[in-house]
Amino acid sequence: MFSTLFQATGYKRALELFERGKFDEGKAVLKSLQEEFVAVCEENEVLKAQLSEVADVLDLAENIQFDGQKYWLNDDGEKKGPFCQVCYDRDGLLVHLHEHENHWECQSCNSLYMIPREGKSTPKRKAPLRTTLKKTIPLFLETEMG
Ligand SMILES: [Zn+2]
Questions:
Q1: Which domain of life is it from (predicted)?
Q2: Distance from the CA of 74 to the CA of which of 26, 32, 62, 137 falls in 20 to 30 A?
Q3: Overall number of domains in the chain
């Protein structure tokens, strides 16, 4: 805001100084405008980088899934994880859980997560979301009263 105002009034002032033949003063104004311009460019780069970081965080938040205990990351259809719930909720960090025989452990905050055991069955592969959605869901159920 200040920079834009400074530039707008600065150029006008430089022009006026040149018109009045005060070249040295005009040059000084132009020089400070140039410095200001370089600073604004640098600030712009920093802001762009921050914006990109925020976009990454938002993207991450969209692809993160909570299973009631831990977080999983859906990375282009590939499920990654699990990640520590405590660390993510507290610090926004995805900390890989270290797998033990019966539990996962966060080596950052030492939280423990039980590994659910469902017999010896091979892990079920969930059907892709799209095919699940294609199934028709009955909206009206006929019930016979009495
Ligand atoms: Zn943790």
A1: Bacteria
A2: 137
A3: 2
